[in-house]
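Issue 218. Parser rejects a valid record. Input:
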Amino acid sequence: VGLGEDVFCRQTMALTIRGSYLETAASVLCPTLIIAGAEDRVCPLDRHEEIASRIEQARLTILPDCGHISTLEQPEAVSAAITELLKQPAAQATRSGNCKLEVVKTPN
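Output the parser choked on:
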């Protein structure tokens, strides 16, 4: 891709110092879509399954024949999964009350 050593070093540092997403996953109280590539070698499927199990309203979508960068490898499938999530009722009951799912349109 040719992004260079600097980009690689910054990405590696960011991954090293960030906290565990598993510890905070249970605090997510709104509908959540987790998209995983079945052939992802960077973040294995069992990790996606684990985080999905910790989020009350998680939906896990596994894309066959897809690796780590699903938005580039299968953009249509990713768009379809997001569209399905957005078709769900906007207000979902959660432990803390109602959680609103809002679609925000950005100007072209």
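Fixed in the parser; the record now loads. The chain has one domain: 5-100.
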